[in-house]
Amino acid sequence: MERVARALGLARELGDGDRLAARAVTPRRAVAMGDPQAALEKLLAVLEHQGLLGEDGRLRDDVQLVSIGDHFDFGTRAQGTIDAARVDGPAFLRWLCAHPPAQVTILVGNHDVARVMELARVSDERFAAATAVAEALLAARADAPDEHPARVAAEYMARFPEVPALGVVQRDFSAFTAAQRALVVAELLAGRLRLGASARAAGGPPLLLTHAAITGRELALLGLPDERDPAILAAALDARLAMAIDEVRPRWLAGDLAPLSLAPLHVAGATAADGLGALPEGGGMLYHRPADPDRPGADRSWETEMTRPRRYHPRTLPAGLVQVAGHTGHPKCVAELVRWRDPAMPETLSGRRTLRARGGDDVRYELGLAPAAPGDAVLYLIDPSLHRAPDPAAVELFELEPDPVA
User: Fold this and answer.
1) pLDDT of 110-144, one tens digit each?
2) pTM of the model
3) Among the four 177, 204, 268, 397, which has the fewest Cβ within 10 Å?
4) CA 203 and chain centroid, separation
């Protein structure tokens, strides 16, 4: 594990914006990695097991890597992992960004952009105070189930109008720090983070890679309802991100923490300062995931709200497009794709899975990588729930065709 130790030391030494010395890249292997929300040492151990680390603590010169997004927030306070998550997430992101773009492609996920959206104006002190109050209020509500949720939320909102909903703060963005936000701002300004990428599966079809996939909704919003070329779609997504960054660039450079907006593609969660009393959670491209709208317990009013959808029916995936995404681990799919999976499918971790839609309600969710038939809508899901993976050697990566470097 010497290479892991060297990579760990290098990652901890890097500062925001640091870059490794340029070297010739001769790619012989390319892989996509699902959501890297885990301890830094575990992430590097995964890469080492796959033979991707060099002797000097960086990726081998013949390797290309795509990170599928979500580099922050793992574990819970009860597990005692929050302190590690506060430093390990940004350390891994700095390590990725330090490699040249020809070698490492870094996509953004909802946890990444939340730092410059929902949490754009939140200080460490206010976040810590809001988290403490949120935990106390949620515990009190658990002890008194008759307590009306609206009264609990109203008390929290009145005290922290600039902070997202109490459940989101206490759960989803629990490892936030202002230093992480500064890192995301710096790398967005540097053009190092992307919204989409295109590649080809090893021995397979062209692919669109995003954090949480796109549906017909996103194609329509991009003005490309009939487009299926992954390269064109990735370029359109990156152009939308670049436009959003340009809108806030002067303010960011002046030190004004203005929120980034990707609406209506991706809509940030609200705060009381936005004037929305219910504090709805965010939705859209980086939040949504596939689900059966007719499953027991589904809440259509929340899950499929038009301006900020949190779920989508698999049949809304674009026919004829093959995609790779993270965001959704196998246990969530087992619970939310009930009609379209093997009834005996175990709720275990799995890094590579296939969701296929063939018109109407002909949908299938299965483990492994099923071949894409012409005209099918195919989504390869690669989030391996890394934080909960017991053994780095068991984590699966998605093999891509290496991209020639000019």
Assistant:
1) 999 999 999 999 999 999 999 888 888 877 766 66
2) 0.95
3) 204
4) 26
